[in-house]
Amino acid sequence: PLSRLLDELEVLEELIVLLDPEPGPGGGMACGTTRHLAARYGVPAAWSTFVYSLRPSRSPLRALIEMVVAREPSASLGQLGTHLAQLGRADALQVLSKLG
């Protein structure tokens, strides 16, 4: 289940480092950030903007996973992997694979 990721802090932290950053002013749109992942889960853009405003005290990725698990307890790591693959984030998929 996706909720397992919340217990696997080392893997979660690595994913946060890969997926949370956004390009600075003038940078091109980063592809496959937490914001894009949220859209794949059907989360409104306004929520992403709000949760990004809470950085650095709160990770958008962690908040997203907590929300998806609360809304959809049956959410799976496989589903997350599919979304990451569609976003072209092989680096994040490799980290996720550590959960076996």
Automatic annotation (TrEMBL):
Matches recorded under Gene3D superfamilies: Death Domain, Fas (1.10.533.10)
Protein name per its UniProtKB record: IGF-like family receptor 1
